[in-house]
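[job 4471] stage=fold_predict status=RUNNING
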Amino acid sequence: MSIYHHFPSKQHLHDAIVERVLADVADPPAGSEPMEALRFIGYEYRRVAHRYPRFFPLLALHRLNMPAGVAFIDRMLNHFHAVLADDKLAAQAFRVFGYYVIGAALDETSGYAQGPSAAEPVGDDYIATHCPRLAAAAPYFKPPFFDSTFELGFETMLKGIADLRESK
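[job 4471] inference complete, writing structure tokens
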């Protein structure tokens, strides 16, 4: 009960934690090239997800419709607008970026391997016999490959954003 002397409701407490975690997402170094700023932001957001893995699902789904949240979104959009001067393309690139970074961070911190399972899950022997491609790929779905998998997808996405800039 003592926490509610500081916060009128659980939602207010969540909002305060979201604001605190958003404040932990560092801005790119001053003078960064626009594409380098986006790269920095992506890795920084992922770092925060790994720093707060149990809280990250709430952050990922929380509507950032409080002053600190909308200020955060506006700061991020400034970086996208520096790359793509067109409002529509900057907004769309921001969304695509979020889809990838948030999705990857959710998968890495609380994703598939930790989700609900079948009542009678198949074993490795079944997979090896009936699903050879899955058996061959399975080692690469594990944490030792999270960094290289994130980098592959993230760099591919950033290349697409850079290509949009060059086509304008």
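[job 4471] summary: The CA atoms of residues 28 and 123 lie 45 Å apart.
[job 4471] exit 0
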